[in-house]
Structures are given as structure tokens and as C-alpha cells.
Design goal:
183 residues; alpha/beta; Rossmann fold; 5-stranded parallel β-sheet; 5 helices; 5 strands; 15% strand; globular
Length: 183
């Protein structure tokens, strides 16, 4: 798979000086600097799966050299805190993440994270990851709910890295005019 590296000095303002979806011109609160460096695309990944070497563990190694900051959030609380302090340009949301680390059997926090992303001044493109669906009706209903909540794409688990990278390429093509940041 080839990723197009057409804009070596990518900035959150985009190619025309306009802010792309999800970019904030001023971050709230005292943590305005946040972990994301200016000129790097910020990717928030929420995934609470139990598998070793899952896509969330592999993404930083694959996308980091391309100039993308991958930030993993294992709970809804972590995702909420990250959204408060840092801009997010693309989000990958696992709908089955727990709200808190010490209560993994609680109500899933993924739908809440999707609502928070949708309420941002400029919502980022969002890829929804969901567990395998037991039947067609549940699959269709879940797909409809995710798209209504603003999802760009929905991927059923277990997630293959190659498929996710293809979806991210499509996100960059559609929302960022094919400009993928370089290191």
C-alpha cells in the first residue's frame, strides 16, 4: 500500500489556510500545548480490546514515521480528557471501550465518545470499530446509529491493520485533500 506524501510541511491550518475538520484554533484551558506538536496530524485511537499486538498497538509504529501522532485512550474517561486538552484530526472509536478502567463490565463508553466528537466545533472524521454483530438486523441498526452519530466508516472487529490503513487513506483523501503529513 502506498501513502501519498504530497505536503512535507503540513499544518493544522490546511492547504488554503483554513482549519480542517477537527482542528481547533485555540485549545481550552491551561494544557493548551497538549501532546500534539504543531504540524503533525493527531489521531485519537480508543480501543479497549484484550488482544496482544492489536491494531492500536501497531498504528504508532506504522504512522509515527509519517508524521502522525497516535494517542491511545483505553477508557471513555481517558478519551474525554484527551479531547479537552488536545486537537483531534481523525478519531478511531471502539464502541465497546469501558467508561473507567476499574469497571470493564460497565456500560460501553463508545457511544458517549462519538457524541462528544460530534459536539466539537469542528468534528473530526471518525472511524467506528465495533464487535462482530450476531445478526444482520443488529448489524444494520448499529451501522445506522454510527452513521447518524457522524461516523465516516464502520469496521467490524477483529480489525485488520491493512483494512484500517485503507480507511485512513480514504479519510485523508476526502477530508484533507490527499495531503498526508511527512515527518
Amino acid at each position: 500500500m502506498t501513502l501519498r506524501l504530497s505536503q512535507p510541511n503540513w499544518s493544522p491550518e490546511g492547504p488554503n489556510g483554513n482549519s480542517p475538520p477537527g482542528a481547533r484554533t485555540s485549545a481550552p484551558g491551561p494544557a493548551a500545548s497538549g501532546p500534539s506538536k504543531r504540524g503533525r496530524l493527531s489521531l485519537m485511537v480508543t480501543y479497549g480490546g484484550w488482544r496482544e499486538h492489536d491494531f492500536a498497538d501497531q498504528l504508532p509504529a506504522v504512522l509515527g514515521p509519517l508524521g502522525i501522532d497516535c494517542h491511545r485512550c483505553r477508557t471513555g474517561v481517558e478519551a474525554t480528557e484527551f479531547l479537552r486538552r488536545s486537537p483531534v484530526h481523525i478519531a478511531i472509536v471502539d464502541v465497546s471501550i469501558p467508561m473507567e478502567a476499574d469497571s470493564p463490565r460497565s456500560e460501553p463508553a463508545g457511544p458517549r465518545v462519538l457524541q462528544l466528537l460530534r459536539r466539537l466545533e469542528q468534528p473530526p472524521p471518525t472511524v467506528v470499530v465495533r464487535p462482530p454483530q450476531p445478526c444482520f438486523r443488529d448489524s444494520a441498526r448499529g451501522l445506522s446509529d454510527a452513521l447518524r452519530d457522524g461516523a465516516f466508516a464502520v469496521i467490524d472487529g477483529p480489525v485488520r491493520l491493512e483494512g484500517l490503513l485503507e480507511v485512513l487513506r480514504r479519510v485523508v483523501r476526502r477530508h484533507y485533500r490527499d495531503h498526508w503529513p511527512a515527518a
